[in-house]
Design brief:
The chain contains 15 helices and 22 strands. The chain is an alpha/beta fold. The longest helix has 17 residues. It binds 1-deoxynojirimycin. 1-deoxynojirimycin binds next to loops. It comes from Ornithinimicrobium tianjinense.
């Protein structure tokens, strides 16, 4: 391939940043973040270097699942602003070179959505055109407790509706009935919403809860009610027709082979991107063990993707840090290392913590973790506050622990809002990770801050298309299992990243094969040109140390 090929498919070399408008910046002083506040911070995000903003649900909602319970797909929660403000955000972001994607929640609505209100009013579909918008059954469902997503709140995926005496399906909370994605009118309504946001200027969607689209087992406990791939193909086709360069990014926490199916396999006609949940969980296992092998294996076992597809890599998101794809013993290892107390754990499968507390406040280890994230093949995704090392509020209910207000400064409410603290949408983190210790203002102009480190990592990504497009090779070396050395190659250039997951210093002999003798090796962080006699270069790494090297043939004058 040629370097000019990388000018298409923008998502393959993007850096994504996820935020919830209501916890980012409150401009009108009511204690709730808003679009006017976000507008004031678009330049901060552009300066950080991110290229794509993912907005968590901003739609009108009773807010019983932090906005993932939508009651109107075509407008904006009035606490956050209105469509006019949203257009301002899109315009501002686009002017600063950022794309914007919206969370798209099509698996379910809120039970307050007018469709569900109408659906439950009359059980005869002949009399009620909305009845089949949702999934109903007349017979007793039996025990489905093993299938619920939130076992602390629900014990069945079916709830009996008093109005008609029938049960409706909901994989998540009972106030989130699952839509019938096999119903042409439902699909048409959802595509209308997709078209609406694309027309307004959104550049794509993060699609929520994909594994549940199948809505199986069916009424008799048999096959799935919905073919999720048929739905996805329709969605992808529609998105592509309306906007050739819009992206769909799936939340598909499934085994790699099932993810491949959701990419559309060789046809690549479903998702453009999916989060790599398997790789993320292997990263934590590797960090817990100080042994790079689980991560190396997960990377090598990733299925090969069509050239238009991409993995989205991440270390943290707004949910529990799920470890559901590890074995019980492996999960326990991660719990022991990063969240040993019960109050740090949730749903028996995940952690309520953010990275800095998991890393025991050890800055070198934290920086190594982010360096690792940015070095992996794929598109890195940050969750707001990660760039400054925000902590969590363990006193908050479940997943709310990591949804605290953004910490801008050491002033009142961390500079998030001028409201009385009791009026804030969520309390600000109060302990050693509170705004007095962790905030943007203090880090912005400090070259040694985590924020500056993240900016450096993003700068490297922008200068190295190998990272988003290159071919992966896990390098053999002599420094023991704590070290991951991997290389991403594109044409006649490569980036080699070396990460020490262990606490002890090591020296690694890094192979630089494939470029003839004495290749040109540059340290991408320090800009030093390294002596690399022959086809290997010695690299000394501190405990939790990292090195980023660009390798090119001798005499190559490529810049940077
Ligand atoms: C996945 C989202 O990430 C999560 O926050 C939400 O609760 C469920 N989907 C239900 O919408």
């Amino acid at each position: 391939m040629r370097i000019t090929d990388t000018s298409d498919l923008w998502w393959k070399s993007a850096v994504i940043y996820c935020l919830d408008v209501e916890t980012f910046l409150d401009a009108d002083g009511d204690g709730i973040g808003d679009l006017e506040g976000l507008a004031q911070r678009i330049d901060y995000l552009a300066d950080l270097g991110i290229t794509c903003l993912w907005l968590m649900p901003f739609y009108p909602s009773p807010d019983r699942d932090d906005g993932y319970d939508i009651k109107d797909y075509l407008s904006v929660d009035e606490r956050l602003g209105d469509l006019g403000r949203m257009v301002e955000i899109l315009r501002l972001a686009h002017d600063r070179g950022l794309r914007v994607i919206a969370d798209l929640v099509v698996n379910h609505t809120s039970d307050q959505h007018p469709w569900f209100r109408r659906s439950r009013a009359e059980k005869d579909p002949a009399k009620n055109p909305y009845r089949d918008y949702y999934v109903w059954r007349a017979d007793e469902p039996g025990d489905t407790s093993a299938q619920v997503v939130f076992p602390d709140q629900e014990d069945s995926i079916w709830t009996k509706d008093d109005k008609t005496g029938e049960w409706y399906l909901h994989h998540f909370y009972r106030h989130q009935p699952d839509l019938n994605l096999d119903h042409p009118e439902v699909v048409a309504e959802l595509l209308r919403a997709v078209g609406f946001w694309l027309e307004l200027g959104f550049d794509g969607f993060r699609v929520d809860g994909v594994p549940f689209f199948a809505q199986g087992p069916g009424k008799e406990g048999g096959d799935d009610l919905v073919d999720p791939h048929a739905f996805m193909k329709q969605l992808r086709d529609f998105v592509q027709l309306r906007r050739g360069d819009a992206v769909t990014l799936g939340e598909v926490n499934l085994a790699h082979e099932d993810q491949l199916a959701f990419f559309g396999g060789d046809a690549a006609d479903e998702f453009h991107m999916q989060f790599d949940f398997i790789g993320m969980q292997a990263t934590y296992l590797s960090m817990a063990r100080q042994d790079a092998r689980p991560l190396a294996t997960a990377l090598q076992e990733r299925p090969e993707l069509h050239r238009t597809n991409q993995w989205a890599t991440f270390l943290r998101n707004h949910d529990e840090l799920t470890l559901d794809k590890l074995s019980d013993a492996e999960r326990q290892e991660v719990f022991d290392a990063f969240g040993p107390e019960e109050r740090m754990q949730v749903y028996g499968r995940g952690l309520k913590r953010r990275l800095p507390t998991m890393m025991g406040g050890e800055p070198r280890r934290l920086r190594m973790a982010y360096s690792l994230l940015f070095s992996l093949p794929g598109t890195p995704t940050l969750y707001y506050g990660e760039e400054i090392g925000m902590g969590e509020d363990l006193a908050a209910e479940g997943r709310m622990a990591v949804r605290t207000p953004m910490q801008w400064s050491a002033t009142k409410n961390g500079g998030f809002s001028s409201a009385r603290p009791s009026r804030l949408v969520q309390p600000v983190v109060g302990d050693g990770y509170g705004p007095e210790h962790v905030n943007v203002m203090d880090q912005l102009h400090d070259p040694d801050s985590l924020l500056s480190w993240i900016r450096t990592l993003i700068r490297i990504r922008h200068a190295c298309p190998e990272l988003g497009w290159g071919e992966l090779e896990i390098l053999e070396h002599d420094a023991g299992p704590a070290v991951l050395a991997h290389r991403l190659s594109l044409e006649s250039t490569a980036v080699v990243a070396v990460h020490n997951l262990g606490a002890d210093p090591v020296t690694v002999t890094v192979p630089t094969h494939g470029f003839g003798g004495d290749p040109r090796v540059v340290d991408l962080v320090t800009h030093d040109v390294l002596a690399a006699p022959g086809t290997e270069v010695p690299c000394a790494l501190e405990g939790y140390g990292v090195r980023w090297l660009r390798v090119r043939p001798t005499g190559d004058l490529a810049v940077p």
